[in-house]
Amino acid sequence: MDRHEIEGHEVIEGEVKPTGNGAHVLVPKRWRGADVKIVRTSDPTE
């Protein structure tokens, strides 16, 4: 696994859920309009 260092304001953990032809991760509504970065921390189970 690679190590990445990211400066930010807040961290949440979540699970990627399937949607249509892709997938999504839900974040708090108050994050609307903010820039975010998603880091995969495990291999997919499929």
Q: Domains counted in the coordinates: how many?
A: 1
Helix content: under 10%
* Major sheet details: 2 strands, antiparallel
Which percent range describes the beta-strand content? 5-15%
What would you report as the Rg, rounded to the nearest angstrom?
12 Å
The unreliable regions are none
Content-based structural category: mainly beta
Q: What is the typical, i.e. mean, pLDDT?
A: 92
Distance between the termini: 19 Å
Order of helices and strands: EE
Q: Strand tally, please?
A: 2
Number of helices: 0
The global form is flat
- Strand sequence of the main sheet, in spatial order? 1-2
Protein name: Putative transposon-encoded protein
Pfam family, one: DUF2080
InterPro entries: DUF2080_transposon-encoded
Please describe what this structure looks like.
The chain is built from no helices and 2 strands. It has one domain (1-45). It has strands spanning 17-19, 22-24. It has 46 residues and is mainly beta. A hairpin with a 2-residue loop joins strand 1 and strand 2. It has a two-stranded antiparallel ribbon with strand order 1-2.
Kindly summarize this structure in a few lines.
The protein has strands spanning 17-19, 22-24. By secondary structure, the protein is an all-beta fold. The chain has one domain (1-45).
